[in-house]
Design goal:
This protein is mainly α. It is built from 4 helices and no strands. The chain is globular.
């Protein structure tokens, strides 16, 4: 399983999971969901997700470190400012919010299965390998950061 670690760009994973959710939705429709506020909740999640992800990118750019998690060895600094005070992985959190918006738009309860699967995949194949590198590279500074800020929110 180590062969999958840090191999697929997170943006590609966002698209893959969105496609899988759509495919599940198009093959199996048990019931369509709708509720008051349905038409504004999806766009709100999408906008919030986009903002959260872009704030993560902005902080990385501000600290002149790589945004590409497939090459953690190119991380030049530990970013703990801005949105990173609230989430160690705001870009991934933003993607999760975007996928939540997609699940709402699909209006099929089965589409929501993609959300925990996305979190599990990201934790195992993206976040844990990144954390190993960060601990090796930034040591106690990173461990202190981990103790103060949660992985997702």
């Amino acid at each position: 399983m180590k062969a999958l670690e840090l191999k697929i760009p997170p943006v590609a994973l966002l698209l893959i999971f969105a496609f899988l959710m759509w495919a599940l939705n198009s093959r199996i429709v048990i019931i369509k969901i709708s509720f008051a506020g349905f038409h504004w909740l999806g766009p709100l999640c999408f906008v919030l997700g986009t903002i959260v992800a872009l704030l993560g990118v902005y902080q990385f750019r501000k600290f002149n470190t790589t945004v590409d998690p497939r090459v953690p060895q190119e991380s030049s600094s530990l970013v703990t400012a801005g949105i990173y005070q609230y989430s160690r992985n705001p870009m991934y959190l933003g993607f999760l919010l975007m996928l939540t918006a997609w699940a709402i738009a699909l209006a099929n309860p089965l589409a929501f299965i993609g959300l925990p699967l996305f979190v599990m995949y990201m934790n195992r194949f993206q976040i844990k390998p990144e954390e190993r590198f960060m601990q090796e590279n930034f040591g106690d500074e990173y461990r202190q950061y981990q103790s103060k800020v949660r992985r997702w929110i």
